[in-house]
Amino acid sequence: MTQYAWWQTGVIYQIYPRSFMDGNNDGVGDLNGITQRLDYLQWLGVDAIWLSPIYPSPMADFGYDISNYTDIEPLFGNLEDFDRLLEQAHQRGMKCILDFVPCHSSDQHPWFREARSSQDNPKRDWYIWRDPAPDGGVPNNWLSNFGGTAWQYDEQTQQYYLHMFDARQPDLNWRNPEVRNAMLDAMRFWLERGVDGFRVDVIWMMVKDMQFRDNPLRLDWKPGDSNESIQIGVYTEDQPEVHEIIRGMRALVDGYAGDRVLIGEIYLEAEKLVTYYGPQLDEVHMPFNFQFITMESWSAETIRSCVDAYEAMLPTGAWPNWVLGNHDRPRIATRIGCDQIRIAQMLLLTLRGTPTCYYGDELGMENVVVPVEMINDPPGKKNPLFSRDPERTPMQWDASPNAGFSAAGIQPWLPIAQDYQQQNIEVEQQDPHSYLALVRALLSLRHDIPALSIGTYTAVLDVPEGCFAFLREHEEQRLLVVLNCSGPDLELTLPRLGQGHILLATSLDREGKVELSALQLPANEGYIIEL
Ligand code: NOJ
Questions:
Q1: Residue 378 CA, closest ligand 1 atom number
Q2: How far is the CA of 201 from the centre of ligand 1 (A)?
Q3: Is the pLDDT of residue 250 over 90?
Q4: Rounded Cα–Cα distance for residues 27 and 51 (Å)
Q5: Are residue 39 and residue 140 in the same domain, yes or no?
Q6: Which of 19, 64, 266 to mutate to test the pocket of ligand 1 (most atoms within 8 A of CB)?
Q7: 3-state class (DSSP) for residue 200
Q8: For the segment 111-129, what is each residue's pLDDT rounded down to a tens digit?
Q9: Whose CA is nearest to atom 4 of ligand 1?
Q10: Is the pLDDT at 228 greater than 80, yes or no?
Q11: Domain check: are 212 and 308 in the same one?
């Protein structure tokens, strides 16, 4: 019988540490805060937590600018706090995945300080330096994902360094073997401490073109489109050499007992995405599949076609995964609207493949309006339209001041949603029909029913427009999931499927026997039906 790893059968929950729980009342979340809330996560029923970066950082990009890869940022606590969190998570049967950020460090990292001290410093080549163009300008047309050129001039040594994100995040030179060794050592440090794996930041951008050729421009780009879409990253991303580096990371992770996992952050179209599993399934265990985040319209037809195309493209033996939200993109409730979020959650938690849930999405949290003068996020400071602060606001625990995130009287680092007194964990825990109750019920079914976690997936095509339906099957178990992704009520006519039994409805108020020859499916309603 096939054995499945925990990261295949389990559900991952992303914590943005600054915003989850403020354990020491300084307005910023921390490790002890997370530890305090592990019981909640266990109650919810997730299997693993992924922590966005917790390493020492000047916080130019809120932790994605690391100044020491093997310690804890004092704002978040210290190594003892981390060890306690890890131990407490493990005691509750939960795994813990760290965010690893190999593409760039902070400009305050001692490596970069050394590198920028002179052109012949031994660490110079750890970063990517170029002479100015003959006119003194930037070496080529590469653009930063946060807007503007990707090159920063260094007065002292009279060269430009590359930064694909903020200027305070210089890109590391992964063509240099010393960089590779230092980074693998950092991964070892955490693996030996017992972490269960890594989510690797912008893994597909670790290597750049050796000839520094200009990127082509996207001709259909218009103001308001994202910064990263101005150019096609032909020479700054998805370079062939990156795969060998990832295989090195994978070999390292696989050398540790206990199914440690390597997940890659990759925004690429599905055909390219799946190449990151590796020719022998020897690269990342899962390249994050962001199709539900990047898709332009939310409809049964687009969802079905993206699921079917992805399923068809997966290499043999590769394990799929799905994501509805993260700290970089508007929250799902804001993107698709509140009417459809129950459907979205049922979709995420019934599809084949590991689901990753973003903190607060289980409440139905929406983007919070952050006044321009309070914007923290670097791309948001350049253009408020691109601020990611709205999806990073503090978790809403209860109706007390500051939503129970920080004590009363403390100013949290980002504003709390105005409706937090109605929309919070405590209130939703008491309401058997709440959105949170649905998410918890879905998680519990996914745990109890192998067909949902490891069963096969088959789309059901003879359903009316606006409905996405699929079967999940394992041994004798056969489940039908039907999702009404549109406004009108629908009737499904599937006589060949006979009778069924509703295990869970998104409204949480329908169960029992149904005839599949004439199944009424109200607007914005979904069912998991046992056949
Ligand atoms: C992707 C991360 O998710 C994002 O938050 C960060 O700004 C960039 N990588 C740069 O590290």
A1: 7
A2: 7
A3: yes
A4: 18
A5: no
A6: 64
A7: strand
A8: 999 999 999 999 999 999 9
A9: 328
A10: no
A11: yes
Residue type, 198: F
Angstrom CA distances, 107 to 65, 126, 472, stand at 8, 12, 49
64 Cα–ligand 1 center, Å: 6
Q: How far is the CA of 407 from the centre of ligand 1 (A)?
A: 29
Provide the 8-state DSSP code for 326: -
pLDDT exceeds cutoff 90 at 222? no
Q: Ligand 1, from 165, 166, 389: best to mutate by most atoms within 8 Å of Cβ?
A: 165
* pLDDT level of residue 210 (50, 70, 90 thresholds): very high
Residues assigned a catalytic role = 201, 265
CB 129 within 8 A of CB 90: no
CATH number of the CATH domain containing 266? 3.20.20.80
Q: Are 192 and 110 within 8 A, CB to CB? A: no
Among 55, 67, 101, say which to mutate for ligand 1: greatest number of ligand atoms within 8 Å of CB.
Answer: 101
Q: Name the domain boundary from 389, 409, 442.
A: 442
For residue 80, the model assigns a pLDDT of: 98
Nearest CA to ligand 1 atom 8: 64
CA of 371 to the centre of ligand 1 (A): 22
For the chain, percent helix, then strand, then coil, each to nearest 5? Answer: 35, 20, 50
Pocket of ligand 1 (CB under 6 A): 61, 64, 101, 165, 201-202, 265, 327-328
Distance from Cα 423 to the centre of ligand 1, integer Å = 28
Ligand 1, atom 6: closest residue by C-alpha: 64
pLDDT above 70 covers what percent of the chain? Answer: 100
As a residue count, the chain comes to 531
CATH number at 494 reads 2.60.40.1180
User: Does residue 167 lie in a domain region?
Assistant: no
Atom 5 of ligand 1 has which residue's CA nearest to it? Answer: 328
Provide the pLDDT confidence category of residue 487 given band limits of 50, 70 and 90. Answer: confident
Which of 303, 287, 283 has its CA nearest to residue 295? 303
Same-domain pairing of 285 and 138 = no
Instruction: State the DSSP H helix or E strand holding residue 427, giving kind and residue range, or none if neither.
Output: helix 425-430
Q: Is the pLDDT of residue 226 over 90?
A: no
Task: Say which amino acid occupies 124.
Answer: R
Q: How far is CA 287 from CA 229, 253, 461, 513, in A?
A: 21, 15, 28, 39
pTM: 0.97
Are 50 and 119 part of one and the same domain?
A: no
Amino acid at 77: G
